[in-house]
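Entry:
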Amino acid sequence: MFYQLPTDLAEKYSLDLMKELETTDLMSGFEGMFGVLVCKEKNQDGTLGEKEIILRAFSGKFNGVWNHEGFVPALLDQSEYDKAVAINDDMIHELTEVPENETAEEKIVRDEKRVALCKQSLERIYSLYKFTCFDKSKKTFSHIKQMLNYNAARVEDKLFPTGLGDCCAPKLFSYAFSKNLQPVSLAEFYWGSPNANFEPRKFYPPCDAKCSLILPVILGLDILYRDKDIIVVNKPSGVLAVPGRGPDKQDCIVNRVRNLFADCIEQPSAHRLDMDTSGLLVLGFSTEAQRSLSIQFQNSEVEKKYIAVIDGVLGVKCNFENHAADKLSPNGLNDSNPEITPNSTEGKIELKCRLDIENRPHQIYDEEYGKNGVTLWKKLRIWKMNGRNVTSIEFEPETGRTHQLRLASASCLGFGIPIVGDNLYGKQEEGERLMLHSSYLSFKHPTTGEKMEFFCEPDFKY
């Protein structure tokens, strides 16, 4: 996983902590990660105080104890944890012991019972955790599963890994947000005997196996890359990229970035994604970086690719009733694109579209006044999703028009088939998301000129 915040300041205070650990018996025999989060207090006017507040944490527990003075508390109550574990503990231990003369069939039954009891215990433990997030909301693992759209095959049995929530970073960020502190710098280091994975006193970013599942929810940002000039995030579906009109539309990626990074400029956005589209967004921390990125997008110098799932078989006319594509042309152009057949594997779609003033935010085809949108596409596969035939598509837009890919799919001058979950140009079932994801982004770094490439898989099957 990538470090969410700059590390220099926290590393300096980590060296002080290492010196303490050398001269105390407190951590005798402990092997694991330590973390330091440097914070500042927020003033009522939104500015930050000068005083640096140092938070410290260790991973898990040691000597059977979750909490020690001088470190942020664990995210659960120890007595409640002990009660939850005790319910199945004796039975699990009994089932772990191998009886004499056990047959293969008996071993399978014993293992199944033990696994089932372990899962029960884990579910009880999960229910004890409470995380304070970036917006001061309190989240449980149940909330986090829903927010992560946890039907993805990230954990096959849909259980979080053991110990998730016991790592340093979740503890530190949750405590900071609960105290209305502004995180400034984060560092983690390993303490203990060297092993195949860690070296003593060496700094490591938060782990992929656990922290990558939970930190994006706590921070409100899934950070894929960050340096002093830019940040690249994986935007979730349902979150605005930039602020909208009105107080109810201020929660967005831009404001989340500005809230987490106090030195960020007021307008870091260089491009946008629709609220319902997920995937890669790059923002600039400085005016110079933002301007460079914006120019690259304006000049079509940025390479972009999207994954989409369309609601039918490519090349077969859509039969939706009241299909929104029938309204895309003010000139009554409703004929299907003859160049796209069931055997088509790739091609180009060009559509001149503009805002439908009488039906915002819909776009409509307009040969005279529309702006040309050019989209390359490739068919990936045709498959069944929940009993209906769908087609997976890779889009590569050469322009950046509003709703360009949604129109290329839904318009009868394109595929004539809307993207699954498109509530503007198709249909959306209850609990369904727009299956459109920005999966690839390539641009020149605004300071170094280096080619930057990012790949990001969608959280839906395709």
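The radius of gyration is 26 Å.
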